[in-house]
Amino acid sequence: MSAAVFSGQTAGSYLETCARRQTRSDVVMWLTENFETLLKATGRRALKWSTLAEHLARDGLRTQQGRAPTPNGLRVEWYRVKERITAAKAEADRRLRDGSASPAVVSTERAPTGPSDEEILALMTEADNEERLNRERRERIAGYEAQRRPKVAPDQASIQPTAPAEVVETAQSQPASLETATQPRVKIGQIANHVTMLTQAPRYGADRDKPLPPPYVGPRPDGMPEYLPLDALMPLDATGRQPDGRIDYEALPGLPRRSFFERDRDWAKACIPMVEAIPHEDRSLILRGLLMRARDQMKTLY
Fold first, then answer.
1. Whose CB among 19, 164, 194, 266 lies 3.0–4.6 Å from 32's, allowing a Cys bridge?
2. Lowest-pLDDT range of 20-29, 50-59, 135-144, 186-195
3. pLDDT tens digits, one per residue of 12-29
4. Average pLDDT value for the chain
5. Helices (H), 46-177
6. Could you give the CA distance from residue 96 to residue 93 in angstroms, rounded to a whole number?
7. Residue 5, SS3?
8. Which domain of life is it from (predicted)?
9. Which contiguous run of DSSP H or E holds residue 265?
10. With the CA atoms of 37, 39, 44 and 49 taken in that order, what torsion angle do they form, in degrees rounded to the nearest 10?
């Protein structure tokens, strides 16, 4: 075998790039770098691939799988490298021939030049004449329209025509139909809701001498029972405290007062829905305490 096979001569840079794009195998890289040397060696005589495989394995070159090269595998890889490089050279030659065969087209046309000064003056004069003709035509049309417009007397010009007043009929002026007037308030088979309002419970003993609180003034609170009148509520400006400063749960502002009811259970029954109508996060500690007291009162039988 010729010593040139193992001389490690490097091929062109395009061969190295071609090999690196295809694989990372050391064997393929070596075959690509020494392509010209191997091509000359295989052209003169048959190459002993077993000897070449032993030399490459001893130098530490491995395949892509990390194995030592074999004679048959080396022969197959050399065939692939030769086909790839030959095709790359043919493509490069074809592009070179195509590029040299098409000469650069040199434009022989003269670059367009702008109009001369005389041409510019002629264009400006033509535009001015056209504008003057259009202005005269508009003035003539305006004069014709002014002559055709009828003349109006000065005393009549100030009189503005008024539109006739529209008569709008409201729903209140229309009489109700007989069917609507005679329609019953309660449908057949349904019983009207009857509510008996509570009244002030009688007071006995020393309670008769105590003055009643001022009347409640304001809208009907949420959750207030239908049977409960506004007189049963404490005014909104009430202090809600006893004379000694303690909290008076039976006389909180805006809530039912205990003195209106005859029994504690009735008072608690009226307080619970009004407190529960307030969202839990908006209830104060006093309202929560009142709710607990009212619920305890409802547990009693009397």
1. 19
2. 20-29
3. 555 555 555 445 588 888
4. 77
5. 49-58, 71-101, 117-148, 154-157
6. 5
7. helix
8. Bacteria
9. helix 264-276
10. 90
